[in-house]
Each structure stands twice: as C-alpha cells, then as structure tokens.
Amino acid sequence: MLKFILTFHFFLFNFFGLSFASEQNYFTSTGNYQSHRYSYLDQINLENIDNLKVAWIFKNDLEIKDDPTVANALTPVITDKSLIFGTLDNYLVSLNPKSGQINWKKKYNGYKGIAKRGITFKEINFGNESKKVIFIPTNKTILAIDPNNGQIINSLGDQGKFGENGSGLAPIVIDNKIFISSSSKIESYEINNYKKNWSANLNGARVWSGFSYDKITNSLIVTTSDPADLIYSRTKEPDYFNSLVILDALNGKIRCSFQDVKFDHWDLDMVGHPIVVNNINGDQKNIVFGFSKTGNTIVADLNTCELHFDNSFKNSNALSPDNSLKNVNYSKVQKEFLKPEPISSITYDFDSYLDSIDDINKKNYISHKLRYSKYNSKYIPLSLNYDSTLIGLHGGPQWPGGSFDKLNNQIIVTTNHDPWIIRAYYQDQIYRLKKGLNIRIKRFIDKYEFLSNYKKKELLDKNLNQRIKRYVDSEDYYSSYKIIKGVFYLFDQLYFNSTKFLDFSGSKIYKNKCLSCHGYYRQEYFETEFTGDEYVPSLTNLSQLERFNSMENTEDFQFSHKYIENKIKITNDELLQVKNYFQKVDKVLNKLDLIHIGYKWQVILDNEKLPASVQPWGKISAIDIETGKLNWSIPSGYTISRNKKIPGSTNFGGLLSTKSNILFSTGTSDEKIYAYKSSDGDQIWSYKLPASGSSAPMTYEMDGTQYILVNASGGRYYNYKKSNSEYLVAFKLESN
Questions:
Q1: What pLDDT score was predicted for residue 550?
Q2: What is the chain's percent helix, strand, coil content, to nearest 5?
Q3: For residue range 520-551, what is the model confidence (pLDDT) as tens digits?
Q4: Cα distances (Å, whole numbers) of residue 66 to 437, 467, 569, 691
Q5: pLDDT in tens, 309-322
Q6: What is the mean pLDDT of residues 229-237?
Q7: Which of 120, 211, 223, 451 could form a disulfide bond with 170, CB atoms 3.0-4.6 angstroms apart?
C-alpha cells in the first residue's frame, strides 16, 4: 500500500509539472504552497542520525537589546545558491548555504516587519527569458528582490512593490500571478504588468496565520481569526471569522467556508497554514486540514466544498451570559468537532489539576487565585462578576501549524495545554485616555528616535508613566523627560485631589494604604504573557460588583490580600471610610459617563511560576489522514524548573517531516531541537541550541549534502529565556 502511494505521488507531481525537487529545497517558508513542511531528502536517516553535527552557525546581534516582545518566526528559504533570511532588526540577509557566510545584507528604508513569517522564491518567465525573484512581505507591501544582490527589482510591479497593504505571510506565485494575503483581503496581480486581477474581501475576518494553494483545484485556502476585540456585538454576514475559507484562484470568489467558533469572545483563532492533501486513497479526492486553538481540526473536500468526514461535528449548547456586559452577542450553540479526533481542548479541568497536586500550599495558592473564576466548561461567557478560565490564547495549535508526514500518511501538529484567564473590568475613562496619550508619546519617540537603543529598551517596561517615574533621574535621559514627568505628576495630583472633596477621610486612608498598588485612578495592573502573571485588580466602579463585599470587614479584606508581600494594616472603621469613598467616586464617574469596560488575557501560574494545569503543557500529536484518529501523542520537549525536567513544554517553533521517517521539532523552552521517529513519536536525537527555536525547521540539499536548518532567536513568553541575538544553526552528517 505504501509503495503504491509513493508511486502515485511521483506520477501526480510529474503530471502537473511539479518535481520532487519542490519538496527537497524550501522555495517558500512552508516547504511548498500546500504547506506540507515535508521533504523527500533522506540522506539523514534513522541509521545515521547520531552522526548529525553542527555544520555552521550564523549569529545576528540585535540592534535593540532586551526586548521581551519579539522572536523571529521566519523559516528561511533557499534559492539555487543562497539562503534568504529576514532578521528582527529589519535586514534581509543572503547566506552561503554551505558555510553560513554572508553574501549580502540589506535594509530597506521605510519598511519594517521584513519577512515576518514567510518568504517566497520564484523564477518568473518573460517570454523566452526568466528572472529569479525573492518576494518579501513587509509592513506596507510585498517587495520584489533580486537574490543576487538584494536590490529591489524596479521593473516589476509598482517600482518593485506588489499590493498596497502590509502582510506577514509569504505570497503565492503561480503562472506569473502573485496572490497576497493582507489583513482581511486576498488579492491577485499580474507580475509582468501589475494588473490587478481581483480582490476578495473577507468582511473583516483577519488573515495573519495561514495561506495555502492547491494546484489541482486551483484553490486558495486561508485560516481566519477573531475580530481583535473580545467585547463586541456583531451580526455581520457573511461571517468568515474563525474559519477555513476556500477561494477560487481564477476570480477570487469565495467557494465555501467552514467556521469553528461563532461569535468568538475568547481569541480562539484558526491558526497555521492549511495543509492540502491530494488524491486520498487514490480516488482523486483532494482535501485540506485547518487547525483551531480550540483543538478542533476542520477537514474540507476541495472538489465538493463539503466536510470530508461524515458526521464531522455536533452542535452543543453554549453557556448563557449573565448580561453584566451589555450589547454583547453570544451564539447559543457551538460546534464540537468529532472527526478528526480533537488534539486538545479549551476546557480547564480545575478539579483534575487540584487532584494532581500534593503540596497543600500550592493548592491553597491557586484556589485563592481563581476564587472569582469559572472553569470546567467550554466557551464561558465573559463577565464583570467572574473571570473566564480556559486553555486558550496560546493553547491548542499555534501559528506555525503542522506537517504532512507522507511516509506514514498522517498530519503531525504541536499543541499547548497551559491555562489562561480573561478578566473583564471597569476602568476610569480619564486613566484610559491618559494611557492612550502615553502610547502616542512612546510611538512619537520611537518614530523620531529621540532615544538611544539603550533608552528605547527602557520603554518596554510597563506603561510610559511608570517608566518615566522610575527612570527619569537617570543621566541617560534627556531633560525633556523631567518636564514630561512633572506634567504627568501634576495631572495625577490634580485628578486625585478633585476626588478628595467627595470624602476627605476616605481618600486620605486610600492614599496612605492603597495608592502604592492601585494608583491615583484605582487602576489595574496586568503583567503580560512576556514576563509573568502579576496582577493588581481595578478598584474602579467596584461598588457595582459582587466582590465589593470583600470590604465588609477586615477579615474578608485581609483574605483578598492574602498573597501580597506587604500586608496592609487597616481597622474596620478605616475600611468603612474607604468603602464610602469608593461609592461616592463611582457615583460621580457613572453620572459623568466616565466608566469604560476593558478586558485582559493573562496566563495562570502556580506559586512556582509554572503553568497551573495538568501536565504535559505541550504535546506533539499525529492524526491519521484516512480515519481522523490519533496515531500517537507525546510530550513536546521538557520544561526545566528548579533543576527538574518536566516532560512537556509549550511550543512556538514548528515541525519538519522527512522521507526517512524522521520528524524534527523546535520551539520548546528547554532550547533544544528534537528528532523523533515519525511513525510512533519515539525520540531518537536532540541538540541544545544557543536559544529556543522560534520557527519550524527546514532542510535543503547543496552539492550532494543534506542540511537541517533551525532558526533560534529565543522565546517571547514568560517561561522562555530571552536572547539579544538570533541564530541560524545548520546541521549535517559528520564526515567519516
């Protein structure tokens, strides 16, 4: 059976003019336009993988240091004689594939986000002539670049530009046509004369993660996300959010779409490049796999525009909201996909987690932390009265997607299983507007580069007002910062003093005992997923919430502050005065319509700063293409904590499958690249990288030698080490 499948694939690829070479050397960052991340190269195999050694390392020291918010998500591509790579500091680099030495390094003024998630290399035909081109996504357009020297090819497109919007994904180039995904549009242009063929509007649904093409059915396939705002009321039709969308590449018409989550208030995007599989069971059936953060996999038939598996899903009743958030619409039912078998779940099983804990202190800590939470259900509506807890945001599959292991007829995907919490809260509108001003000042400073790189680093800490207060006396700052600090300080004082008149005694007690944490505006503080889980709740409009009862007596008050470092000494009488102060301020804010509702995602960590959920926190799973069942599932790498190796780490790298029955995986917090036996997931090799892998690995052949290449720039998130350099690490078999 296996021999027949491989023979038929050989016939199919040659019939359509696609040689196996297209799946040896990556001409696009997903391996090919079907996003297989698979290679027929088999020089590196199960018998000799122990001889896999580092061939060369390319290191790029970043111009901006200590930025916790970035990691390089690009898988490089290879031309006929060079590797093409985009750096985090907006350079495009050409390297010698055999040595890693730089051929050229270019920066394009006015463009950022260079090759953020993908590159495409293509030879373009001009009658009897041809031109080799690298197509580079940027924040503004797609640039056509000469691979020999890095120069923009002005004779193509609009002075070397294609499209009028930024893109993070590699374009698809077929028959001298270029297809571009940007925001919520898919567009087609003629490469030779820059004629626009068509533009498809997805009605606001964002395409940031996945873009693939099937030649047999001439289909473009995208995965879409939520509307980037979790608190909304939307009745847009047609609704392409959180969907697998299939378009006709000839005219841009949407042939069909398949939605996972209806009215998404949890940021449960469809993610990763859709994986196209042709000729299922030899019966000319062509299907596509799309992945969702929910753990659902949607498999659609590209010929019929129907779901591939019979009885793929069932409808389940969703929980009803408590209506504390007005004008927010929820779907009464959500799909529960049964085929393929789910590879993860968004349900946070808190009870099972508690049962897995022996340490009573840890149990008490996490129970206290989630005392206002709802869990153990899917699609928990957002509320001002409770927090919604689920395996979400970075749970389930992530943007790198999966790999098509053709040898074993399976799709392999990484998934994350760490818990997250969504908190909806009231916010003082004055404070919100002030924060907005802070952001604009920061952008102004960044744009005109008033600060050195060292000083720019300081801008990454918390909000600008806090940065100014903390660092203004440093000699590294210009005197203008003292003026800004003074303006903000005076504004804070003026605002707070204006509330004193409502209750002098209560405001004085608040200032002496509460202001150091909650600030002049009784504001919230959320540590981001880049650094941790520190949280200070908003006290704005607290009088309208059930948890206001915690101010009834000092016992309840002290319990709510149980795990803060500096204990607050307060009497019942003082607490009552603060409570009265809150009520009076809230009344005025509501009367003046100065109450805003915000929300934030936050990771849930235990008292050891580890994910507060059942292990493993990361997995690799293989889905059988014919049956939809899981062939195997294993922990993804290790989480290192207090000199302990815990099986399973979150994964933000990706996968590569090869003909030699080897699966390569990167992206775990232990900073390793792993090799597994594709057929059963057994680990067969690993190597410690200089930083965590940050995109899917790739492979290529040069002068008869196969290389494995890893992009390692460290991890963006709380449990990853940050790196001030990014690396390309190439491996090859050690010579005898």
A1: 87
A2: 20, 35, 45
A3: 999 998 888 888 899 999 999 999 998 998 89
A4: 24, 15, 38, 14
A5: 999 999 999 999 99
A6: 85
A7: 120
Q: Sign of the C-alpha dihedral, residues 616, 620, 623, 624?
A: negative
In eight-state DSSP terms, residue 473 is T
For residue 351, count CB atoms less than 10 angstroms from its CB and return exposed for 0-12, middle for 13-18, buried for 19 or more.
Answer: exposed
Would you state the structure tokens that stand for residue 70, as one six-digit string?
């970035």
Distance CA 153, CA 226 (A): 36
Contacts of 76 by beta carbon, 8 Å cutoff, 6+ apart: 26, 29, 83, 84, 85, 119, 698, 709, 711, 728
Q: What is the DSSP string of 537-563?
A: ---TTGGGSGGGGGGSSHHHHHHHTTT
What's the token pair of residue 562? 């149980």
Count CB neighbours of 106 within 10 A: 16
pLDDT band at 60 (very low <50, low <70, confident <90, very high): very high
pLDDT band of 461, cuts 50, 70, 90: very low
The DSSP call for residue 369 is H
Amino acid at 278: N
Confidence band, pLDDT 50/70/90 cuts, at residue 484 = low
Cβ neighbors of 378 (< 8 A, separation 6 or more) are: 294, 316, 318, 334, 345, 346, 347, 390
Q: Are strands 373-374 and 387-390 parallel, antiparallel or unpaired?
A: parallel
Q: What is the 3-state secondary structure (H, E, C) of 144-211?
A: EECCCCCCECCCCCECCEECCCCCCCCCEEECCEEEEEECCEEEEEECCCCCEEEEEECCCCCCCCEE
- Phi first, then psi: give them for residue 34, nearest 5 degrees: -85, 0
